[in-house]
Amino acid sequence: MTQIALAYMNIKAHMAKHLKALRTAKALSLDATAKLTGVSKAMLGQIERQESSPTIATLWKISSGLDTSFSAFMSSPHGDVIREKTFPDDPNMLIKNIFTFNTQTRFEMFEIILSGYHQQMSTPHSVGVIEHVIVLQGELALFSGGEWQTLTSGQSSRFFADQPHGYHALSETAIFQNIVSYPLSNKA
């Protein structure tokens, strides 16, 4: 088995365990979790049984619905962090975990690489979540507040992520840092 296949199996297993642990800690059934997250009961069950890997959009829905951070699905309780992650349905989007969520700072930080002019749309996160985007390389279109804006290397933007938003590489490759800050009400 290749190292990539092994890493994929490990992240899939971690996501499954973390989802089940969150549900258990909150005493939620799959049905109740589906209502909170907007993700079907069947899909949640498949993720927990490791029969399916969630898309980036699905993982954000689960994170928002369960009032937890996105990076919590990419790190273990022991602090082991999966530093780089691509998702099977999003091979043109690589997420590098720079800082996992911290309860004192209330933020997490990623470096995101979009290749092949990839576009990634996101559903709203929890109320009060704010994203900060800093473009490191290339040209990026950022959708927030119902409109697109273009950012180039060295430019940045901050927006409320509790509304639909998205990112589109206008160059072959766009690399940007994404800082996600959570309000105090979030129990990540």
TrEMBL record:
Question: Organism's domain of life?
Answer: Bacteria
Q: Kindly state which keywords UniProt assigns to this record, in alphabetical order.
A: DNA-binding, Transcription, Transcription regulation
The record's listing under InterPro entries reads: Cro/C1-type_HTH (IPR001387), Cupin_2 (IPR013096), Lambda_DNA-bd_dom_sf (IPR010982), RmlC-like_jellyroll (IPR014710), RmlC_Cupin_sf (IPR011051), TransReg_Diox_bact_type (IPR050807)
Q: Where is the HTH cro/C1-type domain?
A: 19-73
**Pfam families xrefs:** Cupin_2, HTH_3
Protein name from the UniProt record = Transcriptional regulator
